[in-house]
Amino acid sequence: NAGVTQTPKFQVLKTGQSMTLQCAQDMNHEYMSWYRQDPGMGLRLIHYSVGAGITDQGEVPNGYNVSRSTTEDFPLRLLSAAPSQTSVYFCASKRTSGGTDTQYFGPGTRLTVL
Amino acid sequence: RKEVEQDPGPFNVPEGATVAFNCTYSNSASQSFFWYRQDCRKEPKLLMSVYSSGNEDGRFTAQLNRASQYISLLIRDSKLSDSATYLCVVNMNTGFQKLVFGTGTRLLVSP
Q1: Could you say which of A22, A38, A108, B9 is the most buried, measured as most Cβ atoms within 10 Å of its Cβ?
Q2: What is the mean pLDDT of residues B25-44?
C-alpha cells in the first residue's frame, strides 16, 4: 500500500492564481480530511469528507473548495491564492468516522503564495 | 483559553534521561486522546492513543487525568531518535470530527 499520497510536494503561486492540491489513499478509508499547519499553531482542519459525495467544512474553510467523487481521491482547490494561504498542507485519512481510529497523513504540500 | 495547550519547549535532555510532557484540554466532554510524533518537515504519525486507564508501549507511557483535563506522555531512557515534536491531539466529540491538535512540544535528545 502507498498509504496517503499528495502532489505536488512544493508549489509557488502568485496572488490570485488557482490550483488544486491532489490527495489519494489506497486503504479504502471512508474519512478524509485536509489540514494546514502554520508556525506556532496546531494543525487546523480545512475540510473533511465522510465518504464519496459527502464533504463538509472544518474550522478554516474560506478560500478552499473540495470534492469527493471517489473513495480514493480528495482534492483541495485554492480558488484565488492569497499570501495568507502560504502554509504546509496535509491530507489525512482514517478507516471510520469514529474518533478512535488511527489517522494517516500524507507527506504534505509546501505552498508559498507571493 | 486554547482548546489544547502544550508547552512548546524545547526540552533538551541527555540520552538515557526520562522526560515528561503534559497537555491540557478545555472541553470536558472530549472522548479520545492521542499523542502524535512529527519529525522535522515530515507528516505527523500516531505514537499512541491514550486510554482512561493509562497505557504503556515500551519506553512510552501515556496517562489521562479527566478531573484535571490533562494528558501526559512519559519517555524513559531517551534515545537520540526520540528527538522530534510531540503533538497532543484531542477529539472534541462535537458535531463534526473535531480533532484538535496542540502546537506540539519539541524534544531534543543529545549524546
Answers
A1: A108
A2: 92
pLDDT of residue B76: 98
A90: CB partners within 8 A, 6+ apart: A6, A34, A35, A36, A37, A43, A105, A106, A108, B43, B44
At B38, list the grid cell: 512529527
- The secondary structure of chain A as a DSSP string is ---EEEE-SEEEE-TT--EEEEEEESS--SEEEEEEE-TTS--EEEEEEEETTEEEE-S--TTEEE--SSSSB--EEESS--GGG-EEEEEEEESSSSSSSPPEE---EEEEE-
The answer to whether B97 contacts A107, with C-beta atoms less than 8 Å apart, is no
CA quadruple A86, A87, A88, A93: dihedral sign: negative
The reply to whether residue A108 touches residue B43, judged by beta carbons under 8 angstroms, is: yes
Q: Does B49 touch chain A (CB under 8 A)?
A: yes
**% pLDDT > 70, chain A:** 96
- Cα A73 to chain centroid, rounded: 10
Q: Does B60 touch chain A (CB under 8 A)?
A: no
Residue B29, pLDDT above cutoff 90? no
Average pLDDT, chain A: 93
pLDDT of residue B3: 87
In this predicted structure, the answer to whether residue A1 has a pLDDT above a threshold of 60 is yes
Count contacts between A and B (CB, < 8 Å). Answer: 49
- A25 CB-contact burial (10 Å; exposed 0-12 / middle 13-18 / buried 19+): buried
- In this structure, are residues A46 and A76 in contact, taking their beta carbons and an 8 Å threshold? yes
